[in-house]
From TrEMBL:
Alphabetized CDD domains for the sequence: PKc_Myt1
Name of the protein in its database record: Membrane-associated tyrosine- and threonine-specific cdc2-inhibitory kinase
Keywords: ATP-binding, Cell cycle, Golgi apparatus, Kinase, Magnesium, Membrane, Metal-binding, Nucleotide-binding, Phosphoprotein, Serine/threonine-protein kinase, Transferase
Domain Protein kinase positions: 103-353
Catalytic activity: L-threonyl-[protein] + ATP = O-phospho-L-threonyl-[protein] + ADP + H(+); L-seryl-[protein] + ATP = O-phospho-L-seryl-[protein] + ADP + H(+)
Lineage of source species: Eukaryota, Metazoa, Chordata, Craniata, Vertebrata
GO molecular function: ATP binding; metal ion binding; protein serine/threonine kinase activity
Localization per Swiss-Prot or TrEMBL: Golgi apparatus membrane
Single GO cellular component term: nucleus
Family: Belongs to the protein kinase superfamily. Ser/Thr protein kinase family. GCN2 subfamily.
EC number of the protein: 2.7.11.1
Length: 406
């Protein structure tokens, strides 16, 4: 459990500084507020390169590549057979891809190291979704299998109200596509657009939702290893969800943590530098996420500030206005010693968290009722004024609530 406050100062004075990796560039010597107006994906660092064999085309240039099927093939590890994605709209005789035939691209939501995410409307059911498409085509069979692991990990996560829902995945012309539910924004985008610390009640809501999502992962022996505001999504009904499961580690899998990769250095737990991968690392990353949005604080990538945060020091110039109960939660999450760090079950048992969860349930229930009432009025107004079109253009803002849900 967290070290008591009266002993914390003595512990910090005797603790050996944690070495900072040499690849952590742009070391910061002090803490500062976050800047406004930056792009959605400005903070996505390139993931470590993965060793791979040369493309098959270089070794056997005239050989038929089994991993380069021109027609779409569904990807699912729950049903081992790869079949053509089911859609009444897809015509394999056309040159257009399955994506272009079955989806209308509305806008580009962001771009990361390995994928681009688009907001799309399904031509089949009229609902809006997010589709993530790999940036680079498969370079070979091993590269293909590595990229397909994200689908297997997402399927292993399963469905939970606080985890981003996977609708389906498919591959076509050496490119992987993942279709997921659509959320209104990421926590990073939302907090940076505000440009100020989030209200205390809102931070409690984020804490409750993400702890529930993290408990779902940990109960399944899964580590997320990349929790940060850019990977937290806000649904159209205000529910916070964990997403981007590309770095998930299965503790009960054959490989365990042997192939684990750490995520963004600003949120990573100190023990990951020593190759220690446990559930406590996710708790630390969640604590850093909450510290950032609750204080509108720019987290350091390295240097003295990076060291201080991993030695239990919370800068009072940022945290002095935080509620005492929340500071207790935060200190438990950011305990430097992973063996003493608070776990998800202990955090959820705290009276402050339980009070916040009760208030959270009331808020979401009320919001859901109001949303449904507003949607009914929008639909009726659209039906009366559009001569057969049952929803107005203004009413499209509420359309995702019905199609996606939580």
């Amino acid at each position: 459990m967290p070290v008591p406050d009266d002993e914390m100062s003595q512990v910090l004075m005797t603790r050996t500084p944690i070495p900072v990796p040499t690849h952590f560039s742009q070391a910061e010597q002090s803490f500062s507020h976050k800047k406004r107006g930056r792009a959605l994906c400005y903070s996505l660092p390139p993931r470590p390169p993965v060793k791979n064999i040369p493309p098959v085309s270089r070794i056997f240039p005239n050989k038929q590549r089994s991993w380069s099927q021109p027609r779409p093939q569904s990807v699912s590890f729950q049903s081992p057979q790869h079949k053509q994605p089911i859609s009444r709209l897809y015509d394999h005789s056309k040159e257009e891809t399955f994506y272009k035939q079955c989806f209308q691209t509305l806008c580009k939501l962001g771009r990361g190291s390995f994928g681009e995410v688009y907001k799309v409307r399904s031509r089949e059911d009229g609902c809006v979704y997010a589709v993530k498409r790999s940036v680079s085509p498969f370079r070979g069979e091993s590269d293909r299998l590595r990229k397909l692991q994200e689908v297997r990990k997402h399927e292993r996560v399963g469905e939970h109200p606080n985890c981003l829902r996977l609708v389906r995945a498919w591959e076509e012309k050496r490119v992987l596509y993942l279709q997921t539910e659509l959320c209104s924004s990421s926590l990073q985008q939302y907090s940076e657009e505000r440009g100020e610390p989030l209200p205390a009640q809102e931070v409690w809501s984020i804490t409750c939702d993400l702890l529930r999502g993290l408990k779902h992962l940990h109960d399944r022996n899964l580590l997320h290893l990349d929790i940060k505001p850019a990977n937290v999504f806000i649904s159209y009904t205000g529910v916070y969800k964990l997403g981007d499961f590309g770095l998930v580690v299965e503790l009960d899998g054959a490989e365990g943590s042997a192939e684990a990769q750490e995520g963004d250095p600003r949120y990573m737990a100190p023990e990951l530098l020593d190759g220690v991968f446990t559930k406590a690392a996710d708790v630390f990353s969640l604590g850093m996420t909450l510290l950032e949005v609750a204080c509108n604080m720019e987290l350091p990538k390295g240097g003295e500030g990076w060291q201080q945060l991993r030695q239990g020091h919370l800068p009072t110039e940022f945290t002095s206005e935080l509620p005492p109960d929340f500071l207790k939660v935060l200190s438990g999450m950011l305990e430097p010693d992973y063996r003493c760090r608070a776990n998800v079950d202990w955090l959820l048992s705290l009276p402050a968290i339980q009070r916040a969860q009760r208030w959270r349930r009331v808020t979401l229930t009320t919001r859901g009722i109001v949303t449904k009432i507003l949607y009914i009025f929008q639909v009726r107004a659209g039906s009366a004024s559009s001569s057969g079109q049952w929803v107005t253009e203004e009413g499209m803002d509420l359309w995702p609530l019905v199609c996606i849900g939580d």
